[in-house]
Write a structure and sequence with these properties.
This protein is of the alpha/beta class and about 400 residues long. It has 13 helices and 14 strands. Strand 9, helix 8 and strand 10 form a beta-alpha-beta unit.
Length: about 400
């Protein structure tokens, strides 16, 4: 279930700011946002943890700026800080690489170029910015020529102290927006204008009081924007909801935990999916998840399964990831089946000991970060699926229609 801190950030463009300590990363973010988001100091290593700033950034729209610790940090906490910087890299849609004009050690195989190659491999666009040009404009021009030689990218030369206009940086960000960013629909091509869509949303112990969970809110908003006729019911009111309609709904979207109930009740003409499966396609790789679900049939009581949640809510009695899916698996494969849980960003680097990974819908994180988890599983050849696909597979109702 999604509620807390990162909720407004999940669907925003993530702009990560990277560079060495004291290169002016925090000053740049403060300049772009017009606010004192990050502490600025001449002391190296001032930024000790990732700093997130969500805002409407005209003309890009909703963005999240991520201020990172310097990747050359040599303090006692360096290892942990650099791990956080790597985490920011996994979430980044556009990377800004900040280099101080005083830098005299930029050369082939330097850290900036190592990070550039990392982003390039991930198809993450990079903007090079040479900061502190007020201190050494001549050296800034030399650096610019070197960077362009190695990367074919023309850097921007600025001074966060003297320059007030950020138009050039904004224009660079606009040019670098990934072509596939913010073009997908949660509901894919399953719906069209005037279609009748039913949403089955149990308001049980997991539902936050007085609010809907994020996937439900986002899906409802999209259906309204797409001019669909939308009806929302709780699981115990499905029959009444259906009887109130002139014709069966084209599509029923349900919470994964009541899949079997809705499947048995739905009209034959109506397609059925879940919020979790929709988000599997919207945030991840649905085809890969469906293929990964086949590994469920190969599990034994000696297998080890990792269930990965993105949010960090306290487990409840009816929790789908902590209670319901584990119960379904152990009922089929035995109580000795080992099931481990991680939450938030605590996703293991080494996945070799697992026979299967089950990822939540991922509504709390952006698509880039969910895909980084999928890439890790693919590289280590560990099958991976998600909550909704798992439940549909176990209950024998998984049917696939490309969205």
């Amino acid at each position: 279930m999604a509620e807390l801190n990162d909720t407004p950030n999940a669907s925003r463009l993530h702009i990560g700011v990277f560079g060495r300590t004291n290169s002016g990363k925090s000053s740049l973010i403060n300049k772009l946002t017009g606010q004192s988001v990050s502490i600025v100091s001449d002391i190296s290593g001032t930024t000790t943890d990732l700093v997130y700033k969500a805002m409407e950034f005209h003309p890009l729209g909703p963005c999240v700026f991520i201020d990172t610790a310097g990747f050359d940090d040599e303090s006692e906490l360096a290892v942990k800080r650099i791990e956080k910087t790597k985490l920011a890299g996994e979430k980044t849609d556009i990377a800004i690489m900040v280099i101080s004009a005083e830098n005299n050690s930029f050369a082939e195989n330097c850290q900036e170029l190592t990070w550039y190659e990392y982003f390039k491999k991930k198809n993450i666009p990079v903007i090079f910015i040479i900061n502190k040009s007020d201190l050494s404009l001549e050296n800034a021009k030399i650096l610019s020529a070197k960077i362009e030689e190695f990367t074919k990218e023309k850097p921007l030369i600025i001074s966060c102290i003297n320059d007030n206009d950020t138009t050039e940086i904004k224009n660079a960000l606009i040019r670098k927006i990934p072509q596939d960013y913010d073009t997908a629909f949660i509901t894919g091509n399953l719906v069209n204008e005037d279609d009748v869509i039913m949403l089955v949303m149990p308001q049980d112990i997991q539902a936050p009081k007085g609010r809907l969970i994020l996937p439900q809110v986002q899906t409802i908003r999209e259906l309204l924007d797409r001019k669909c006729i939308t009806i929302c019911v709780t699981a115990d009111k499905i029959k009444q909801g259906l009887s109130s309609l002139v014709k069966p709904p084209k599509l029923i979207i349900t919470d994964s935990q009541v899949f079997p109930l809705v499947y048995e009740t739905k009209p034959k003409e109506s397609m059925l999916t879940s919020f979790s499966i929709l988000f599997a396609a919207y945030k991840g790789d649905l085809t890969y998840y469906i293929e990964g679900a086949k590994a469920i049939d190969t599990l034994t009581e000696n297998s080890r399964v990792l269930i990965a949640e993105c949010c960090t809510h306290a487990p409840l009695a009816e929790d789908i990831g902590r209670v319901k899916i584990p119960n379904m698996l152990r009922k089929r494969f035995g109580k000795k089946l080992i099931i481990e849980h991680v939450s938030g960003t605590d996703f293991p680097k080494d996945l070799a000991k697992y026979d299967l990974i089950i990822q939540c819908g991922g509504c709390m994180f952006n698509r880039r970060y969910i895909l980084s988890r999928i890439d890790r599983a693919k590289q280590q050849k560990i099958p991976m699926t998600n909550y909704g696909v798992t439940i549909a597979h176990i209950t024998g109702i998984l049917e696939y229609k490309t969205t």
